Amino acid sequence: MVKLLIGTRSAGKQREFRRLFAGAPFELLFPDDAGIAESAAEDALELHESFEGNARAKAEYFAKRSRLPTVADDSGLEVFSLGGEPGVRSRRWAQATGSTDAVDAANNAMLLRRLAGAPDNRRRARYRCVLVLARSASAIPEPFEGACGGLITPEPRGDHGFGYDPCFLSDDLGRTFGEAGDDEKDAVSHRGRAVRALLASLSTHPL
Predict the structure, then answer these.
(1) Fold of 2-204
(2) 178: how many CB neighbours lie within 10 A of its CB?
(3) Where are the domains of the chain?
(4) In 3D, which of 183, 14, 161, 141 has the Cα closest to residue 77?
(5) DSSP one-letter code for 10
(6) How far apart are CA 58 and CA 44, in angstroms?
């Protein structure tokens, strides 16, 4: 079975990727599985101004380190009335440190403060995900994108998912990603749509 490295250390993303690639003809690996020790160099991989730029940097970095076909993603929340913020800075928006839960809580609190009292038409948002496939460290990167629309709720709802999920009211589901089950979220999420586009391409252009 072909080994495919997913270049992320995020526990939440790893859970989603395992679900989304279930049944695909790959042995899925993450950096720790491939023996890639975490390095300070990884901090510089997400300094680009686009999701694709960040995803490409991560895919090329981990492909070079692992010598395996590699997929990396960059994704985030774009609130239209905030000029697309937090966008590529979704993870670092509130500049919080500490545990994943603490960082998520700080980011969500900042989001709700910025939209306090805003009507629904100013709460429109979308999640975007760009995956980049690097078949090798020197191959031309192949991007795949997924997006989903919704509204930012006045307060968090639900305790599933991660990141901004409790505040993102999905147009498709009529409830927040924090309230949705895994299968429901995966069927309509930005990451689910990007992975399905990638898998469709790999079915006709295998690794």
Answers:
(1) Maf protein (3.90.950)
(2) 22
(3) 2-204
(4) 161
(5) -
(6) 10
User: With contact defined as beta carbons under 8 Å apart, do 28 and 6 qualify?
Assistant: yes
CA distance 137 to 184: 35
pLDDT by position in tens, the chain (length 207): 999 999 999 999 999 999 999 999 999 999 999 999 999 999 889 889 999 999 999 999 999 999 999 999 999 999 999 999 999 999 999 999 999 999 999 999 999 999 999 999 999 999 999 999 999 999 999 999 999 999 999 999 999 999 999 999 999 999 999 999 999 999 999 999 999 999 999 999 999
Q: Which long-range contacts (CB under 8 A, 24 or more apart) does 157-165 make?
A: 160/185, 161/12, 161/185, 162/10, 162/12, 162/100, 162/104, 163/12, 163/77, 163/90, 163/91, 163/104, 163/107, 164/77, 164/90, 164/104, 164/107, 164/108, 164/111, 164/127
SS3 24: coil
> Per the structure block, which two tokens stand in for 59?
């895919």
Cβ-based neighbour number of residue 101 at 10 Å: 9
- CA separation for the pair 135, 141 (Å, rounded): 8
As annotated, the active-site residues are 74
Q: 143: cis peptide before it, omega within 30°?
A: no
Residue with tokens 């992320």: 8
